[in-house]
Amino acid sequence: MFSFKKFLVCCFALVLLLGVMTGCGSDEVSVEDAEAEVTIKSSNWEFDKATYTAPAGKPVAIHHENVEGHHGITIKGTDVKIQGDGSVVANLKPGEYEIICDIMCGTGHTEMVSKLVVE
Ligand SMILES: [Cu+2]
């Protein structure tokens, strides 16, 4: 039989759960809310630009897209690591960072190196 009291308890639990979830995620900016974005496209065996630029000290959405082959990116000196296609949000300090392919993708793998300039 349907119990209204049970229903209320469930609603309360759900609200509580949602509250906890939003509370935990409050310091993380979603990809949609990032203030700038950088798109890195990979093919065999190069990134689409030699140098990418991003603003410092702001949430930046970094997108990685495989145009050809299967690649991943690691931006050395940061926490940014995207294997395959995907997006992450990063808040970076000024400087120059090396972008490398982190998936063993074939003969040109070691040549897949670009630069990210954060200023
Ligand atoms: Cu590779």
Model description:
With 119 residues, the protein is of the alpha+beta class. It has one domain (34-118): Cupredoxins -  blue copper proteins (Immunoglobulin-like). It has 1 helix and 9 strands. The N and C termini lie far apart (64 Å). Residues 71, 101, 103-105, 109, 112 line the site of copper (II) ion.
Provide key terms for this protein.
119 residues, alpha+beta, Immunoglobulin-like, five-stranded mixed sheet, binds copper (II) ion
Q: What does the largest sheet look like?
A: 5 strands, mixed
* Average pLDDT number: 90
Full CATH superfamily name: Cupredoxins -  blue copper proteins
User: How much helix, percentage-wise, in residues?
Assistant: 10-25%
Order of strands across the main sheet: 3-9-8-5-6
Count up the domains: 1
Quaternary class = single chain
How many helix segments?
1
- From the spread of the alpha carbons, the general shape counts as elongated
Number of strands: 9
| End-to-end distance | 64 Å
CATH topology: Immunoglobulin-like
Signal peptide: 1-26
Protein name: Cytochrome C oxidase subunit II
Organism: Sutcliffiella horikoshii
Keywords: Signal
Outline of this structure?
The chain is an alpha+beta fold and 119 residues long.
List the helices and strands and how they pair.
Layout (H helix, E strand, L loop, with lengths): L3 H21 L11 E8 L2 E2 L3 E4 L4 E8 L5 E4 L5 E3 L2 E6 L3 E7 L11 E6 L1
Parallel strand pairs: 1-4, 3-9
Antiparallel strand pairs: 1-2, 4-7, 5-6, 5-8, 8-9
The structure holds copper (II) ion (CU).
